[in-house]
Specification:
- By secondary structure, the chain is α+β, with helices and mostly antiparallel strands.
- It has one domain: tt1808, chain A, CATH 3.90.1570.10.
- It has five helices and ten strands, in the order H-H-E-E-H-H-E-E-E-H-E-E-E-E-E.
- The strands form three sheets. It has a six-stranded mixed beta sheet, sandwiched between helices. It has a two-stranded antiparallel sheet with strand order 1-2.
- The longest helix is centred in the last third of the chain and has 15 residues, at 134-148.
- It is globular.
- The protein starts with a helix and ends in an 8-residue tail after the last strand.
- The mean pLDDT is 93.
Length: 209
Protein backbone atom coordinates (compact mmCIF):
# COMPACT_ATOMS: atom_id res chain seq x y z
CA UNK A 1 0.00 0.00 0.00
CA UNK A 2 1.40 3.41 -0.95
CA UNK A 3 1.86 6.21 1.58
CA UNK A 4 -0.86 8.16 -0.21
CA UNK A 5 -3.34 5.30 0.12
CA UNK A 6 -2.46 4.78 3.78
CA UNK A 7 -3.29 8.44 4.39
CA UNK A 8 -6.79 7.83 3.04
CA UNK A 9 -7.43 4.76 5.16
CA UNK A 10 -8.26 6.14 8.57
CA UNK A 11 -11.10 5.43 10.98
CA UNK A 12 -13.49 7.75 9.14
CA UNK A 13 -12.55 7.03 5.52
CA UNK A 14 -14.72 4.80 3.38
CA UNK A 15 -13.13 3.48 0.19
CA UNK A 16 -15.77 2.36 -2.29
CA UNK A 17 -14.69 -0.45 -4.60
CA UNK A 18 -15.70 -0.51 -8.25
CA UNK A 19 -18.16 -3.17 -9.30
CA UNK A 20 -17.67 -5.23 -12.43
CA UNK A 21 -20.55 -3.30 -14.03
CA UNK A 22 -18.93 0.06 -13.26
CA UNK A 23 -15.61 -1.22 -14.59
CA UNK A 24 -17.28 -2.25 -17.85
CA UNK A 25 -18.90 1.19 -18.11
CA UNK A 26 -15.48 2.83 -17.82
CA UNK A 27 -14.25 0.71 -20.72
CA UNK A 28 -17.36 1.40 -22.82
CA UNK A 29 -16.99 5.15 -22.29
CA UNK A 30 -13.31 5.12 -23.21
CA UNK A 31 -12.09 6.05 -19.72
CA UNK A 32 -10.10 2.82 -19.84
CA UNK A 33 -8.84 1.45 -23.13
CA UNK A 34 -10.10 -2.06 -23.78
CA UNK A 35 -7.18 -4.41 -24.24
CA UNK A 36 -4.79 -2.43 -22.06
CA UNK A 37 -3.12 -4.60 -19.38
CA UNK A 38 -5.44 -3.77 -16.51
CA UNK A 39 -7.66 -6.00 -14.40
CA UNK A 40 -10.19 -5.51 -11.62
CA UNK A 41 -9.09 -7.05 -8.31
CA UNK A 42 -11.04 -6.51 -5.10
CA UNK A 43 -12.78 -3.57 -6.77
CA UNK A 44 -9.51 -1.84 -7.68
CA UNK A 45 -8.08 -1.30 -11.15
CA UNK A 46 -4.65 -2.92 -11.14
CA UNK A 47 -2.07 -2.94 -13.90
CA UNK A 48 -1.01 -6.49 -14.74
CA UNK A 49 2.61 -7.17 -13.85
CA UNK A 50 4.16 -9.23 -16.63
CA UNK A 51 7.72 -8.08 -16.06
CA UNK A 52 10.72 -10.12 -15.03
CA UNK A 53 11.91 -9.63 -11.46
CA UNK A 54 14.04 -6.51 -11.14
CA UNK A 55 13.03 -5.10 -14.50
CA UNK A 56 10.81 -2.17 -15.45
CA UNK A 57 7.28 -3.13 -14.26
CA UNK A 58 5.89 -1.60 -17.46
CA UNK A 59 7.78 -4.14 -19.56
CA UNK A 60 6.84 -7.72 -20.48
CA UNK A 61 9.40 -10.38 -19.67
CA UNK A 62 10.76 -12.51 -22.50
CA UNK A 63 10.17 -15.72 -20.56
CA UNK A 64 6.64 -14.63 -19.75
CA UNK A 65 5.87 -14.26 -23.46
CA UNK A 66 7.47 -17.65 -24.18
CA UNK A 67 5.22 -19.41 -21.69
CA UNK A 68 2.09 -17.66 -23.00
CA UNK A 69 2.91 -18.96 -26.47
CA UNK A 70 3.30 -22.48 -25.09
CA UNK A 71 -0.07 -22.24 -23.35
CA UNK A 72 -1.73 -21.04 -26.55
CA UNK A 73 -0.48 -24.15 -28.36
CA UNK A 74 -2.52 -26.33 -26.00
CA UNK A 75 -5.73 -24.99 -27.52
CA UNK A 76 -5.96 -27.59 -30.28
CA UNK A 77 -5.60 -30.44 -27.80
CA UNK A 78 -8.18 -28.95 -25.46
CA UNK A 79 -10.66 -28.57 -28.32
CA UNK A 80 -10.93 -32.35 -28.48
CA UNK A 81 -11.81 -32.34 -24.79
CA UNK A 82 -14.76 -29.94 -25.02
CA UNK A 83 -13.01 -26.74 -24.03
CA UNK A 84 -10.44 -24.21 -25.19
CA UNK A 85 -7.51 -22.15 -23.94
CA UNK A 86 -7.87 -18.38 -23.57
CA UNK A 87 -4.72 -16.36 -22.94
CA UNK A 88 -4.61 -13.02 -21.12
CA UNK A 89 -8.37 -12.56 -21.38
CA UNK A 90 -10.92 -11.55 -18.71
CA UNK A 91 -12.85 -13.88 -16.45
CA UNK A 92 -15.84 -12.14 -14.86
CA UNK A 93 -16.25 -12.84 -11.13
CA UNK A 94 -18.87 -10.43 -9.75
CA UNK A 95 -19.31 -8.27 -7.87
CA UNK A 96 -15.77 -6.85 -7.61
CA UNK A 97 -13.40 -8.95 -9.68
CA UNK A 98 -12.50 -9.36 -13.32
CA UNK A 99 -8.98 -10.75 -13.42
CA UNK A 100 -7.18 -11.49 -16.68
CA UNK A 101 -5.32 -14.73 -16.01
CA UNK A 102 -2.45 -15.57 -18.32
CA UNK A 103 -4.30 -18.73 -19.25
CA UNK A 104 -7.75 -20.12 -18.61
CA UNK A 105 -9.32 -23.37 -19.73
CA UNK A 106 -12.91 -22.58 -20.64
CA UNK A 107 -15.82 -24.85 -21.51
CA UNK A 108 -17.10 -24.90 -25.09
CA UNK A 109 -15.63 -22.92 -27.97
CA UNK A 110 -14.74 -19.30 -28.59
CA UNK A 111 -18.10 -18.87 -30.33
CA UNK A 112 -19.88 -19.37 -27.01
CA UNK A 113 -18.39 -16.12 -25.68
CA UNK A 114 -19.00 -13.54 -28.37
CA UNK A 115 -21.38 -11.59 -26.10
CA UNK A 116 -19.80 -12.09 -22.69
CA UNK A 117 -16.66 -13.10 -20.84
CA UNK A 118 -16.62 -16.51 -19.17
CA UNK A 119 -17.50 -16.71 -15.49
CA UNK A 120 -16.46 -19.09 -12.75
CA UNK A 121 -18.92 -21.78 -13.87
CA UNK A 122 -17.35 -21.77 -17.34
CA UNK A 123 -13.75 -22.14 -16.21
CA UNK A 124 -12.10 -25.43 -15.24
CA UNK A 125 -8.63 -24.02 -14.61
CA UNK A 126 -6.86 -20.66 -14.38
CA UNK A 127 -3.13 -20.27 -14.96
CA UNK A 128 -0.84 -17.42 -13.95
CA UNK A 129 2.71 -17.05 -15.25
CA UNK A 130 4.51 -15.58 -12.28
CA UNK A 131 7.80 -13.72 -12.18
CA UNK A 132 7.74 -10.36 -10.39
CA UNK A 133 4.01 -10.97 -9.83
CA UNK A 134 4.60 -14.12 -7.76
CA UNK A 135 3.53 -12.65 -4.43
CA UNK A 136 0.28 -11.23 -5.84
CA UNK A 137 -0.47 -14.50 -7.63
CA UNK A 138 0.00 -16.48 -4.40
CA UNK A 139 -2.14 -14.15 -2.30
CA UNK A 140 -4.70 -11.83 -3.93
CA UNK A 141 -5.23 -13.89 -7.09
CA UNK A 142 -5.36 -17.17 -5.17
CA UNK A 143 -7.96 -15.80 -2.76
CA UNK A 144 -10.13 -14.45 -5.59
CA UNK A 145 -10.02 -17.69 -7.58
CA UNK A 146 -10.69 -19.84 -4.51
CA UNK A 147 -13.65 -17.73 -3.42
CA UNK A 148 -15.07 -18.00 -6.95
CA UNK A 149 -14.89 -21.78 -6.67
CA UNK A 150 -12.58 -22.30 -9.65
CA UNK A 151 -11.54 -25.92 -9.32
CA UNK A 152 -7.89 -25.68 -10.35
CA UNK A 153 -5.37 -22.86 -10.11
CA UNK A 154 -1.89 -23.26 -11.59
CA UNK A 155 1.05 -20.93 -11.02
CA UNK A 156 3.95 -21.31 -13.43
CA UNK A 157 6.65 -20.05 -11.08
CA UNK A 158 9.50 -18.75 -13.24
CA UNK A 159 11.96 -17.66 -10.51
CA UNK A 160 11.96 -21.11 -8.90
CA UNK A 161 11.42 -23.09 -12.12
CA UNK A 162 8.48 -25.02 -10.66
CA UNK A 163 4.75 -25.29 -11.21
CA UNK A 164 2.37 -24.91 -8.25
CA UNK A 165 -1.01 -26.63 -8.48
CA UNK A 166 -3.91 -25.67 -6.22
CA UNK A 167 -7.16 -27.63 -6.07
CA UNK A 168 -10.17 -28.07 -3.76
CA UNK A 169 -11.19 -24.40 -3.42
CA UNK A 170 -12.70 -23.37 -0.12
CA UNK A 171 -15.26 -20.75 -1.07
CA UNK A 172 -15.70 -18.03 1.50
CA UNK A 173 -12.34 -18.87 3.06
CA UNK A 174 -10.20 -17.65 0.20
CA UNK A 175 -7.91 -20.61 -0.05
CA UNK A 176 -7.34 -23.98 -1.64
CA UNK A 177 -6.33 -27.31 -0.20
CA UNK A 178 -2.63 -28.16 0.07
CA UNK A 179 -0.62 -27.21 -3.00
CA UNK A 180 1.28 -29.70 -5.13
CA UNK A 181 4.68 -28.57 -6.40
CA UNK A 182 5.94 -29.98 -9.68
CA UNK A 183 9.43 -29.87 -11.14
CA UNK A 184 10.66 -30.17 -14.73
CA UNK A 185 10.67 -33.98 -14.59
CA UNK A 186 6.99 -34.13 -13.57
CA UNK A 187 3.74 -33.98 -15.51
CA UNK A 188 0.93 -31.49 -15.03
CA UNK A 189 -2.65 -32.72 -15.29
CA UNK A 190 -4.96 -29.90 -16.41
CA UNK A 191 -8.70 -30.04 -15.82
CA UNK A 192 -10.85 -30.05 -18.95
CA UNK A 193 -14.59 -30.54 -19.60
CA UNK A 194 -16.74 -33.25 -17.98
CA UNK A 195 -13.96 -34.69 -15.84
CA UNK A 196 -11.55 -35.06 -18.76
CA UNK A 197 -7.92 -34.01 -18.36
CA UNK A 198 -4.94 -32.98 -20.45
CA UNK A 199 -1.48 -34.12 -19.37
CA UNK A 200 1.42 -31.78 -20.12
CA UNK A 201 5.11 -32.19 -19.39
CA UNK A 202 6.17 -29.50 -16.94
CA UNK A 203 9.47 -29.00 -18.76
CA UNK A 204 7.48 -27.93 -21.81
CA UNK A 205 6.12 -24.97 -19.83
CA UNK A 206 9.36 -23.87 -18.18
CA UNK A 207 12.00 -21.95 -20.14
CA UNK A 208 15.46 -23.43 -20.09
CA UNK A 209 18.26 -21.35 -18.74
Amino acid sequence: MSAQLRELVDDRAVLLPLTVEQYHQMIERGILVEGDPYELLDGHIVRKDRSAAGEDPMSVGHEHIWVIQKLARLDSKLGRLGCHMRTQAPVTLPPYDEPEPDGSIVLGTEDDYTQRHPGAADVTCVIEVADSSLRRDRTTKLRIYANAGIAQYVIINLPDRIVEVYTHPRKGRGRYGPAVTLGPADTLVLSAAKGKTLTVRVRDLLPRG
